[in-house]
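Today's session is about reading a structure prediction critically. Students often jump straight to the picture, but the first step is always the sequence itself: look for stretches that repeat, for charged clusters, for runs of hydrophobic residues. Only then move on to the predicted structure, which in these notes is written as discrete structure tokens rather than atom positions. Here is the chain we will use throughout the hour.
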Amino acid sequence: MGLGYLGHGRVCPICGARRRKFLPYGYVTSREDALCPRCLSLERHRLIWLWLKRHSDLFASHPHILHIAPEVSLMRHFKRLYRGTENYITADLESPLADMHFDIQQIPLEDCSVDVVI
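Below is the predicted structure for this chain, in token form.
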């Protein structure tokens, strides 16, 4: 991204990008300092990531995860973390990025086949 954003004022906990500030983001009303220019994470994605790192064992024990409507910034890093295993499945009603497509009211997986649903 532009030279005006290079610096060390912000660090994205998901991708590790160091920037002076994040990009503005918002459809109706733009929020300053919201979007990571490298992984495109927003505040809520970074908060989820930090909570999972600090208060769960998802990064150490590799439980079976079903990630519904996966956020690209999170999905990219979970797929890398879980590479070589079948423990991370993404699902969405229509997204072409998801591994599976279904209505969350009718999950076509066996009972007890996942440990965590995000």
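Discussion point for the tutorial: The radius of gyration is 16 Å.
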